[in-house]
Design goal:
Elements lengths: L1 H9 L7 H18 L4 H12 L3 H8 L7 H12 L4 H21 L4 H8 L2 H6 L8 H12 L9 H11 L3 H20 L1 H10 L4 H20 L21 H16 L8 H21 L4 H20 L5 H17 L8 H5 L4 H35 L5 H10 L7 E4 L5 H7 L3 E3 L4 E3 L13 H14 L6 E5 L10 E9 L9 E8 L1
Parallel strand pairs: 1-4
Antiparallel strand pairs: 2-3, 4-6, 5-6
């Protein structure tokens, strides 16, 4: 009896409440994101919004980025409130906190799983501290799962969420497409659900929902399709892989392994690729058997993985922020499974014994917990590392430039793409040798050309000769200067090398005519 009372009392303690997770996450998230030093991929969209001349010019610039409109339009609204990129970080924090809140309050996972997931690598680091459009994927996917039951009466709410998800990122589009196919499959093959929907829904609901989804997909595809003069194609400059390449195939499977266990196998080592592929297939098969009593989530898990995997193999293997969507698909499929009663349709079709399912479910639980613990360790490590080692040296450099009054000088900065965070923190433009003119954000299109340090000094020499008054120039590089010119006096000022991203270390120089 005393043991029962202790258990009952313990279950009422604050730290056993999902709100404990949410509040702790929000507090630590605020500390982390205010400490985070933004890098080019975070600030470049802000600069595009800040320095585009008109709405038409903004949309034209976005098309070089390979991303849909939603994040940029959100930044445009935020900039009208506070013209400082820190508001983008606060907004990004809010997106992730709402996502974790939905997960903790409405998902079917137990308390331990909710805690481990919330402080895992993707929610607690990748989609929290680094302010990008990918956090929308978690928000809209979890919101979709939260109100999934509303489809019995209306598809309108789900259609809006799918439209927003499709216009958040290219990977959001893939997940949105997979969820849309899942809704379509259920509607076509589940006559009971279809009849229930028609009995309760408005006449226009289905057509309006389809129209919203279709329009959203068309808009997203149009925006992410790069213009003809783009040579980086939104970061996808390697072309399409149209032939069978076993190594590349295993490397792509390794991205699923990386999304689950945060280890990316060495693509040059066959043993690494094969072992990770076997483990990945084992986890995927366990998950499929786990979902075999739930045909609709089973279908989504297959479609979601296949669609993202096809893109990974054919076009872009990606970084953690990209292939993390494999992880979101698994979590969403397990979440959606809670809405359905067990069905024996798939079991009977494949002659699988129910006892076998019970045995496999135990192994799936073990695999899921291993994944969640791996994510948790990765999240705590990455979050802590960001507190200690700046992600980019941009903020420290900008603070020094402001403190010493150098922000009023004429600044030549190169490489332009790596100077975006400095332009954002200093709220001003620089002269970019890659463009041979003043600029802030970088678009990889005709008219931009990478330059060597000798060419940078040559342009500085021309700038000094063309000035009415002889005045020294502040030069900022993201690599230490290794060349010199006899007609220029170059004086090092200060180096900023403490950064996790080695391409965003900064070196300051005074340059003047001899």
């Amino acid at each position: 009896m005393p043991n029962k009372n202790i258990i009952k009392y313990t279950s009422r303690l604050p730290f056993k409440s999902p709100w404990f997770i949410i509040i702790l996450f929000a507090v630590l998230g605020l500390i982390g994101i205010l400490n985070h030093s933004m890098w080019r991929d975070e600030v470049n969209p802000w600069l595009i919004v800040r320095d585009s001349d008109s709405l038409g010019n903004l949309i034209a610039n976005i098309r070089y980025e390979g991303h849909p409109l939603l994040w940029y339009f959100s930044l445009e609204i935020l900039r009208k409130i506070v013209d400082n990129p820190i508001i983008m970080q606060i907004f990004h924090l809010a997106i992730t906190v709402v996502s974790v809140t939905l997960f903790c309050l409405y998902s079917p996972f137990n308390y331990q799983q909710k805690f481990l997931f919330s402080f895992g690598f993707f929610p607690f680091y990748e989609y929290l501290l680094i302010s990008r459009n990918y956090a929308f994927s978690m928000l809209f996917t979890f919101a979709f799962c939260t109100i999934f039951a509303s489809r019995k009466i209306t598809y309108l709410y789900l259609a809006i969420l799918l439209g927003l998800l499709a216009n958040s990122s290219a990977y959001g589009l893939l997940v949105s497409f997979s969820l849309s196919l899942t809704l379509l499959a259920e509607f076509c093959f589940d006559s009971e659900h279809r009849q229930q929907y028609f009995n309760q829904s408005q006449k226009y609901d289905l057509f309006l929902s389809i129209a919203i989804i279709a329009f959203s997909f068309i808009l997203s595809v149009y925006i992410i399709s790069p213009p003809t003069d783009s040579y980086l194609h939104g970061g996808l400059n390697n072309g399409w892989v149209m032939q069978l390449d076993i190594r590349h195939f295993l490397r792509s499977i390794g991205r699923i392994f990386g999304s689950y266990l945060l280890i990316i196998p060495q693509h040059k080592k066959w043993l690494d690729l094969i072992v990770c592929a076997i483990i990945t297939l084992f986890i995927v098969i366990l998950t499929l058997i786990k979902l075999s009593k739930k045909p609709v989530p089973f279908f989504f898990y297959i479609i979601g993985n296949c669609v993202i995997f096809a893109f990974t193999y054919l076009r872009f293997t990606g970084m953690p922020r990209h292939f993390g969507h494999f992880y979101l698909v698994m979590i969403a499929a397990l979440w959606l499974g809670s809405y359905y009663q067990d069905s024996l349709v798939l079991l009977n079709k494949f002659s699988i014994r129910p006892n076998s399912i019970t045995f496999v479910q135990k192994w799936h639980y073990i695999a899921l917990m291993i994944i969640l613990y791996a994510q948790f360790v990765g999240g705590i490590y990455s979050f802590s590392r960001d507190l200690v080692v700046p992600f980019s040296a941009s903020r420290e450099t900008a603070q020094y430039i402001k403190k010493t009054g150098l922000d009023n000088e004429f600044i030549v900065a190169s490489r332009d793409a790596n100077m975006a965070p400095l332009s954002g923190y200093l709220n001003r433009k620089f002269y970019y040798p890659e463009l041979q003119k003043m600029g802030s954000f970088t678009l990889f299109k005709n008219g931009r050309k990478d330059v060597e340090q000798a060419e940078i000094l040559s342009q500085i020499n021309s700038l000094l000769k063309n000035q009415d008054e002889q005045k020294k120039i502040l030069l900022i590089l993201n690599n230490k200067l290794t060349v010199n010119r006899n007609d220029l006096k170059i004086i090092p000022i200060k180096d900023f090398e403490r950064a996790w991203v080695d391409s965003e270390q900064y070196y300051l120089y005074w340059v003047d005519e001899v």
